[in-house]
């Protein structure tokens, strides 16, 4: 997907998130985020939007902490979220293509520039939390496009969990296959994840025999790997599916 497409998704998903939060009310429980209410969801996502926008707008070249959300609630908190989301979209839309700033994924080939990185990352951040807001509201969640879901699985496996901070570790070498079916291209999207006592190493192929496979339609698998819904299909050693569920939360 191109940066402009991610920007379009980010814009849409943030608007949907705000609308769902407004309908649910800020005291509503978020079933997919244990311990959170909608106010926590809005505060977290809005603070991340402001954090990301600052890297691009100010050209920060080193990591900075995420700030605290304001002490607001109800309609004022929803309005603050909408404003933080709008500023992020405007910052990314107006940034030069060659902007230089800090990023944190070790796979630059997937996001060839800082602008591409932050637009993609915030699109997926917002899509997952939009799902959370819609779960809090109730009713049928907005569908996630298959191409976007495949990209999000790739970002999660080859981006987040390639970092030293990933807690997905195994006491002995194991191989986990991830297979997204029903893609726009017609063929399955497949990843091989090698687990060890270090960070997982993932490649986009099926070149090795696997101890277990997690599979399902791309949109469902995307949410499952973010621990929002159960994994649609598990074959082989079910303990590896449990390992993912227990250790893959992003910290």
UniProtKB/TrEMBL annotation:
Pfam family, one: MDMPI_N
Domain MDMPI C-terminal span(s) in chain numbering: 147-243
Record SUPFAM superfamilies: DinB/YfiT-like putative metalloenzymes
A GO molecular function held by the record: isomerase activity
Glycoprotein listed as a keyword: no
Record keyword Isomerase present: yes
UniProt entry keywords in alphabetical sequence: Isomerase
Residue ranges of domain Mycothiol-dependent maleylpyruvate isomerase metal-binding in the record: 10-133
Name of the protein: Maleylpyruvate isomerase family mycothiol-dependent enzyme
Natural source organism: Streptomyces carpinensis
